[in-house]
């Protein structure tokens, strides 16, 4: 079986250390000005990256973003520069799994250390993307899926340096589609306090969901489920944590309306909490938030059996109509109202044109209309 290949710019020169200064300018010139894109397997690409070769995922016709032509490979740069918990590779892979996104490969950057991990995640589309709007949507969705990613790495002419550390191929045939990206586009930006892997991501906007997450009483919900708490300088710490089962590990951050389980390095919004605690998918968690936790607070319906309607005044009907109505109701085992109203309809048709009903001296109507309205004080005359 032939191996799947993708198109990508690869610098012919590899580096043992992170390029600097003039070296970076030379890489860009070789990649996007004079070099033709290479058609490689993922095995070949990973080997090039692991030996220090820089790449340009976007296929370029020049050296600026406006010269972008197409792209099949997308990289997310995890730099862990923001304040907050560290996102490690195992957490990033869990995010990929939860969101149905096969991770093709990852590699540690030149600057990676065990204490401060820096790595890149690689995703391959099922076919080359040639629309700039779609390219931007894909990379922004992928970047926003991951806490501690570099949110600036979304430009079309972005160059990613190789490494002198580990690069690992995970899925040579793993591909994602535009439908995958569409499904993973949800609002709420990760300026919130994030911890570990989180599935509630920003996307192409759902203002309703964004507002629900922002205004949801997460503290009250956590208190209801986890009990007592104490306040610290950083936030509220609960005695219990139903995520990990340990004490003093669950924290609520009021400023961002988010939570953090410190022992398992997990956190995020109410949507993330529902995913972790109840084992829901992202779509199920959003549905529960919208239609159960934030749904309309309906009052209990009033039982119809508790309402006693007045009986129909069959005795007000002239004889023999009153006897006929009562006989029909008993024979058919139906309410008296049904037979009585039907009889009035028949009479109105039979008598129309024969009488007029005067509501007062200045207003009269045909009998049919009067019987429909059921006027009590009207007088009939021929």
Euclidean distance between termini CA atoms: 98 Å
**How confident is the prediction overall: mean pLDDT?**
83
Order the strands across the largest sheet as they lie in space: 4-5-7-6-8
Q: Proportion of β residues?
A: 15-25%
> Helical proportion?
25-40%
Structural class: alpha+beta
Order of helix and strand elements from N to C terminus: EHEHEEEHEEHEHHHEEEEEHHHHEEHE
Count of discrete domains: 3
Largest sheet: 5 strands, antiparallel
Uncertain runs:
186-205, 372-378
**If you compute it from the alpha carbons, what radius of gyration comes out, rounded to the nearest whole angstrom?**
36 Å
The tally of strands reads 16
From the spread of the alpha carbons, the general shape counts as elongated
Number of helices: 12
What this model shows, in words?
The chain has three domains: 5-185, no CATH class; 208-293, Alpha-Beta Complex (DNA Primase, Chain A), CATH 3.90.580.10; 312-381, no CATH class. Helix 8 crosses helix 9 and helix 11 (336-351) packs antiparallel against helix 12 (367-373). The model is unreliable at 186-205 and 372-378 (pLDDT under 50). It has helices spanning 22-34, 42-50, 89-98, 132-145, 178-183, 207-215, 218-226, 270-278, 282-293, 321-332, 336-351, 367-373, and strands spanning 5-14, 38-41, 53-56, 58-60, 68-78, 105-108, 119-129, 167-169, 229-231, 236-238, 250-253, 258-261, 266-268, 356-360, 363-366, 379-381. By secondary structure, it is an alpha+beta fold. The strands form four sheets. The chain has a five-stranded antiparallel beta sheet, sandwiched between helices. Strands 9-10-11-12-13 form a five-stranded antiparallel beta sheet, covered by helices on one side. Strands 2-1-3 form a three-stranded antiparallel beta sheet. It is built from twelve helices and 16 strands. Strand 4 and strand 5 (68-78) form a beta hairpin.
């Amino acid at each position: 079986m032939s191996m799947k290949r993708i198109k990508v710019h690869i610098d012919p020169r590899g580096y043992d250390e992170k390029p600097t200064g003039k070296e970076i300018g030379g890489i860009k010139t070789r990649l996007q000005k004079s070099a033709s894109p290479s058609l490689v397997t993922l095995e070949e690409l990973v080997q090039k990256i692991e030996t220090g070769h820089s790449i340009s995922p976007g296929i370029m016709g020049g050296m600026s973003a406006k010269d972008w032509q197409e792209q099949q490979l997308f990289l997310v740069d995890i730099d862990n520069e923001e304040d907050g918990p560290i996102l490690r590779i195992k957490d990033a892979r869990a995010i990929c799994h939860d969101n149905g996104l096969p991770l093709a490969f990852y590699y540690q950057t030149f600057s990676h250390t065990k204490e401060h991990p820096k790595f890149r995640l690689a995703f391959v589309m099922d076919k080359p993307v040639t629309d700039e709007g779609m390219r931007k949507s894909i990379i922004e969705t992928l970047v926003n899926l991951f806490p501690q990613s570099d949110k600036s790495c979304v430009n079309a002419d972005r160059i990613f340096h190789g490494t002198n550390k580990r690069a690992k191929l995970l899925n040579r045939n793993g591909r994602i589609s535009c439908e995958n990206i569409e499904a993973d586009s949800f609002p709420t930006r990760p300026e919130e306090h994030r911890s570990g892997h989180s599935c509630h991501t920003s996307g192409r906007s759902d203002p309703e969901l964004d507002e629900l997450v922002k205004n949801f009483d997460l503290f009250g919900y956590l208190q209801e489920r986890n009990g007592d708490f104490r306040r610290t300088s950083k936030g509220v710490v609960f005695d219990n944590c139903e995520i990990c089962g340990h004490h003093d590990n669950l924290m609520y951050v009021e400023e961002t309306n988010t939570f953090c389980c410190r022992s398992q390095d997990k956190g995020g919004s109410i949507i993330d909490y529902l995913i972790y605690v109840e084992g829901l998918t992202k779509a199920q968690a959003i549905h529960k938030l919208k239609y159960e936790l934030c749904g309309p607070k309906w009052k209990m319906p009033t039982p119809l059996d508790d309402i006693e309607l007045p009986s129909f005044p069959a005795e007000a009907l002239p004889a023999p109509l009153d006897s006929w109505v009562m006989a029909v109701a008993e024979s058919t085992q139906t309410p008296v109202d049904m037979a009585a109203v039907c009889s009035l309809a028949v009479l109105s048709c039979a008598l129309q044109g024969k009488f007029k009903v005067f509501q007062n001296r200045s207003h009269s109507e045909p009998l049919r209309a009067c019987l429909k309205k059921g006027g009590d004080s009207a007088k009939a005359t021929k």
